[in-house]
Amino acid sequence: MGVSTSGPDKGIALVTVDFPPVNALPVHGWYELADAVRAAGRDPEVRCVVLAAGGRGFNAGVDIKEMQRDAGHSALIGANRGCYEAFAAVYECEVPVVAAVHGFCLGGGIGLAGNADAIVASEDAVFGLPELDRGALGAATHLARLVPQHLMRALYYTSRTATAAELHAHGSVWRVVPRTELSAAALELAAEIAKKDGTLIRLAKAAINGIDPVDVRRSYRFEQGFTFEANLSGVADRVRDTFGKAQGGTA
Protein backbone atom coordinates (compact mmCIF):
# COMPACT_ATOMS: atom_id res chain seq x y z
CA MET A 1 0.00 0.00 0.00
CA GLY A 2 1.26 3.50 -0.83
CA VAL A 3 3.29 4.88 -3.72
CA SER A 4 5.97 2.81 -5.44
CA THR A 5 8.36 3.40 -8.33
CA SER A 6 9.73 0.79 -10.72
CA GLY A 7 11.59 0.68 -14.02
CA PRO A 8 9.71 -1.60 -16.41
CA ASP A 9 11.79 -0.59 -19.44
CA LYS A 10 14.77 1.53 -20.38
CA GLY A 11 14.10 5.23 -19.91
CA ILE A 12 10.72 4.68 -18.23
CA ALA A 13 9.76 5.15 -14.58
CA LEU A 14 6.45 3.63 -13.49
CA VAL A 15 4.91 5.38 -10.47
CA THR A 16 2.07 3.32 -9.03
CA VAL A 17 -0.43 4.55 -6.44
CA ASP A 18 -2.20 1.97 -4.30
CA PHE A 19 -4.36 3.07 -1.37
CA PRO A 20 -7.14 0.48 -0.99
CA PRO A 21 -9.99 0.23 -1.40
CA VAL A 22 -10.63 3.11 -3.83
CA ASN A 23 -7.43 5.17 -3.98
CA ALA A 24 -8.91 8.04 -1.98
CA LEU A 25 -5.61 9.47 -0.83
CA PRO A 26 -4.89 10.63 2.72
CA VAL A 27 -2.83 13.78 3.20
CA HIS A 28 0.49 11.94 3.36
CA GLY A 29 -0.41 10.03 0.18
CA TRP A 30 -0.54 13.20 -1.92
CA TYR A 31 2.91 14.22 -0.69
CA GLU A 32 4.30 10.74 -1.33
CA LEU A 33 2.98 10.89 -4.86
CA ALA A 34 4.45 14.35 -5.44
CA ASP A 35 7.85 13.24 -4.15
CA ALA A 36 7.85 10.09 -6.30
CA VAL A 37 6.97 11.93 -9.52
CA ARG A 38 9.53 14.67 -8.90
CA ALA A 39 12.24 12.13 -8.10
CA ALA A 40 11.49 10.14 -11.24
CA GLY A 41 11.66 13.27 -13.37
CA ARG A 42 15.02 14.24 -11.89
CA ASP A 43 16.57 10.87 -12.71
CA PRO A 44 18.82 11.51 -15.73
CA GLU A 45 18.13 7.98 -17.00
CA VAL A 46 14.38 8.57 -17.14
CA ARG A 47 12.78 10.09 -20.24
CA CYS A 48 9.12 9.37 -19.52
CA VAL A 49 7.06 8.70 -16.39
CA VAL A 50 3.96 6.51 -16.39
CA LEU A 51 1.51 7.29 -13.59
CA ALA A 52 -0.72 4.33 -12.81
CA ALA A 53 -2.77 2.93 -9.95
CA GLY A 54 -3.65 -0.39 -8.44
CA GLY A 55 -7.07 -1.49 -7.29
CA ARG A 56 -10.54 -0.57 -8.43
CA GLY A 57 -9.81 2.81 -9.97
CA PHE A 58 -7.19 5.37 -10.84
CA ASN A 59 -8.06 7.89 -8.14
CA ALA A 60 -11.11 8.76 -6.04
CA GLY A 61 -9.81 12.09 -4.77
CA VAL A 62 -9.10 12.97 -1.16
CA ASP A 63 -9.91 10.80 1.84
CA ILE A 64 -13.11 12.46 3.05
CA LYS A 65 -13.28 10.24 6.12
CA GLU A 66 -9.92 11.66 7.21
CA MET A 67 -11.47 15.11 7.09
CA GLN A 68 -14.57 13.98 8.97
CA ARG A 69 -12.38 12.68 11.79
CA ASP A 70 -10.64 16.03 12.14
CA ALA A 71 -12.36 18.46 14.51
CA GLY A 72 -10.41 21.40 13.08
CA HIS A 73 -9.12 22.33 9.66
CA SER A 74 -5.70 20.63 9.63
CA ALA A 75 -6.86 17.76 7.40
CA LEU A 76 -8.47 20.18 4.95
CA ILE A 77 -5.37 22.36 4.80
CA GLY A 78 -3.18 19.28 4.45
CA ALA A 79 -5.29 17.85 1.64
CA ASN A 80 -5.38 21.16 -0.22
CA ARG A 81 -1.63 21.60 0.04
CA GLY A 82 -0.99 17.96 -0.78
CA CYS A 83 -3.17 18.04 -3.88
CA TYR A 84 -1.54 21.28 -4.95
CA GLU A 85 1.90 19.69 -4.68
CA ALA A 86 0.92 16.45 -6.41
CA PHE A 87 -0.78 18.18 -9.33
CA ALA A 88 2.17 20.54 -9.70
CA ALA A 89 4.63 17.63 -9.58
CA VAL A 90 2.93 15.99 -12.55
CA TYR A 91 2.76 19.23 -14.52
CA GLU A 92 6.32 20.28 -13.70
CA CYS A 93 7.90 16.84 -14.01
CA GLU A 94 11.06 17.30 -16.06
CA VAL A 95 9.96 14.64 -18.54
CA PRO A 96 6.57 13.82 -20.06
CA VAL A 97 4.05 12.02 -17.85
CA VAL A 98 1.63 9.45 -19.27
CA ALA A 99 -1.40 8.75 -17.08
CA ALA A 100 -2.74 5.19 -17.31
CA VAL A 101 -6.34 5.56 -16.15
CA HIS A 102 -8.73 2.75 -15.29
CA GLY A 103 -12.05 2.71 -13.49
CA PHE A 104 -12.90 5.98 -11.79
CA CYS A 105 -10.87 9.17 -12.15
CA LEU A 106 -12.61 11.57 -9.80
CA GLY A 107 -11.79 14.75 -7.90
CA GLY A 108 -8.05 14.74 -7.35
CA GLY A 109 -7.73 12.17 -10.10
CA ILE A 110 -8.80 14.85 -12.55
CA GLY A 111 -6.03 17.09 -11.23
CA LEU A 112 -3.47 14.36 -11.90
CA ALA A 113 -4.76 13.25 -15.30
CA GLY A 114 -5.49 16.81 -16.41
CA ASN A 115 -1.91 17.84 -15.72
CA ALA A 116 -0.40 14.79 -17.41
CA ASP A 117 1.10 15.12 -20.87
CA ALA A 118 -0.89 12.22 -22.31
CA ILE A 119 -3.64 9.87 -21.14
CA VAL A 120 -4.21 6.25 -22.02
CA ALA A 121 -7.47 4.93 -20.59
CA SER A 122 -9.28 1.65 -20.26
CA GLU A 123 -12.77 1.24 -21.67
CA ASP A 124 -14.28 1.30 -18.18
CA ALA A 125 -12.66 4.62 -17.20
CA VAL A 126 -14.89 7.55 -16.22
CA PHE A 127 -13.79 11.10 -15.45
CA GLY A 128 -15.56 13.65 -13.27
CA LEU A 129 -15.64 16.13 -10.42
CA PRO A 130 -18.21 15.22 -7.76
CA GLU A 131 -16.90 18.11 -5.67
CA LEU A 132 -20.25 19.85 -5.15
CA ASP A 133 -21.63 16.61 -3.70
CA ARG A 134 -18.66 16.35 -1.34
CA GLY A 135 -18.62 19.83 0.14
CA ALA A 136 -15.59 20.89 -1.88
CA LEU A 137 -14.50 22.92 -4.89
CA GLY A 138 -11.51 22.74 -7.20
CA ALA A 139 -9.87 21.04 -10.20
CA ALA A 140 -12.09 22.77 -12.76
CA THR A 141 -8.73 24.08 -13.96
CA HIS A 142 -7.76 20.54 -14.87
CA LEU A 143 -11.13 19.35 -16.17
CA ALA A 144 -11.00 22.29 -18.58
CA ARG A 145 -7.85 20.73 -20.05
CA LEU A 146 -9.82 17.57 -20.86
CA VAL A 147 -13.13 18.82 -22.27
CA PRO A 148 -14.49 22.00 -23.90
CA GLN A 149 -15.48 24.90 -21.65
CA HIS A 150 -19.26 24.47 -21.66
CA LEU A 151 -19.06 20.73 -21.15
CA MET A 152 -16.66 21.31 -18.25
CA ARG A 153 -19.20 23.62 -16.62
CA ALA A 154 -22.09 21.21 -17.10
CA LEU A 155 -20.06 18.30 -15.71
CA TYR A 156 -18.93 20.40 -12.76
CA TYR A 157 -22.38 21.71 -11.83
CA THR A 158 -24.08 18.30 -12.17
CA SER A 159 -21.26 16.12 -10.77
CA ARG A 160 -21.74 13.85 -13.77
CA THR A 161 -18.91 11.88 -15.35
CA ALA A 162 -17.62 11.52 -18.90
CA THR A 163 -16.42 8.23 -20.35
CA ALA A 164 -13.00 7.52 -21.76
CA ALA A 165 -14.57 7.20 -25.20
CA GLU A 166 -16.10 10.68 -24.88
CA LEU A 167 -12.76 12.19 -23.85
CA HIS A 168 -11.08 10.38 -26.74
CA ALA A 169 -13.57 12.05 -29.07
CA HIS A 170 -12.54 15.42 -27.63
CA GLY A 171 -8.88 14.58 -28.24
CA SER A 172 -7.74 14.55 -24.61
CA VAL A 173 -7.31 10.77 -24.32
CA TRP A 174 -4.65 9.26 -26.59
CA ARG A 175 -6.03 5.71 -26.68
CA VAL A 176 -8.90 3.75 -25.19
CA VAL A 177 -8.17 0.06 -24.73
CA PRO A 178 -9.59 -2.96 -22.89
CA ARG A 179 -8.60 -2.91 -19.25
CA THR A 180 -6.34 -5.92 -19.66
CA GLU A 181 -4.33 -4.00 -22.26
CA LEU A 182 -4.01 -0.71 -20.36
CA SER A 183 -0.56 -1.24 -18.89
CA ALA A 184 0.90 -2.40 -22.19
CA ALA A 185 -0.67 0.49 -24.11
CA ALA A 186 0.63 3.10 -21.65
CA LEU A 187 4.11 1.59 -21.66
CA GLU A 188 4.06 1.45 -25.47
CA LEU A 189 3.46 5.21 -25.67
CA ALA A 190 6.04 5.84 -22.94
CA ALA A 191 8.60 3.73 -24.81
CA GLU A 192 8.08 5.76 -27.97
CA ILE A 193 8.67 8.97 -26.01
CA ALA A 194 11.63 7.47 -24.17
CA LYS A 195 13.45 6.89 -27.48
CA LYS A 196 14.02 10.64 -27.77
CA ASP A 197 17.20 12.32 -26.61
CA GLY A 198 17.01 12.85 -22.84
CA THR A 199 18.16 16.45 -22.93
CA LEU A 200 15.92 17.36 -25.84
CA ILE A 201 12.80 15.79 -24.33
CA ARG A 202 13.37 17.85 -21.17
CA LEU A 203 13.72 21.01 -23.23
CA ALA A 204 10.55 20.11 -25.10
CA LYS A 205 8.61 19.64 -21.84
CA ALA A 206 9.80 23.00 -20.52
CA ALA A 207 9.01 24.71 -23.81
CA ILE A 208 5.49 23.32 -24.03
CA ASN A 209 4.73 24.27 -20.43
CA GLY A 210 6.05 27.73 -21.19
CA ILE A 211 3.51 28.33 -23.95
CA ASP A 212 0.55 26.96 -21.97
CA PRO A 213 -2.29 29.51 -22.15
CA VAL A 214 -3.29 28.87 -18.51
CA ASP A 215 -1.06 29.04 -15.45
CA VAL A 216 -2.41 25.85 -13.89
CA ARG A 217 -0.82 26.39 -10.48
CA ARG A 218 -2.21 29.90 -10.06
CA SER A 219 -5.60 28.91 -11.50
CA TYR A 220 -5.97 25.95 -9.16
CA ARG A 221 -4.80 27.97 -6.16
CA PHE A 222 -7.52 30.51 -6.95
CA GLU A 223 -10.10 27.73 -6.88
CA GLN A 224 -8.80 26.49 -3.55
CA GLY A 225 -9.57 29.87 -2.00
CA PHE A 226 -13.27 29.18 -2.52
CA THR A 227 -12.87 25.78 -0.92
CA PHE A 228 -11.61 27.51 2.23
CA GLU A 229 -14.52 29.97 2.06
CA ALA A 230 -17.00 27.11 1.81
CA ASN A 231 -15.44 25.49 4.87
CA LEU A 232 -15.29 28.65 6.94
CA SER A 233 -18.95 29.38 6.18
CA GLY A 234 -19.99 25.91 7.34
CA VAL A 235 -21.60 24.88 4.06
CA ALA A 236 -18.82 22.41 3.27
CA ASP A 237 -19.29 20.53 6.54
CA ARG A 238 -23.05 20.44 6.01
CA VAL A 239 -22.67 18.85 2.58
CA ARG A 240 -19.71 16.65 3.48
CA ASP A 241 -21.54 15.17 6.46
CA THR A 242 -24.06 13.65 4.06
CA PHE A 243 -21.26 11.72 2.32
CA GLY A 244 -21.94 8.01 2.41
CA LYS A 245 -25.39 8.44 3.97
CA ALA A 246 -27.88 9.60 1.34
CA GLN A 247 -26.05 7.82 -1.45
CA GLY A 248 -23.01 5.64 -1.96
CA GLY A 249 -19.98 6.36 -4.08
CA THR A 250 -16.37 7.38 -3.95
CA ALA A 251 -14.89 10.68 -2.90
UniProtKB/TrEMBL annotation:
Alphabetical keyword list: Lipid metabolism, Lyase
Q: Which Pfam families match?
A: ECH_1
Family matches, as InterPro entries: ClpP/crotonase-like_dom_sf, Enoyl-CoA_hydra/iso
SUPFAM superfamilies for the chain = ClpP/crotonase
| Family to which the UniProt record says this protein belongs | Belongs to the enoyl-CoA hydratase/isomerase family.
Q: What is this protein called?
A: Enoyl-CoA hydratase family protein
Q: Which organism is it from?
A: Streptomyces polychromogenes
- Species lineage, top-down? Bacteria, Bacillati, Actinomycetota, Actinomycetes, Kitasatosporales
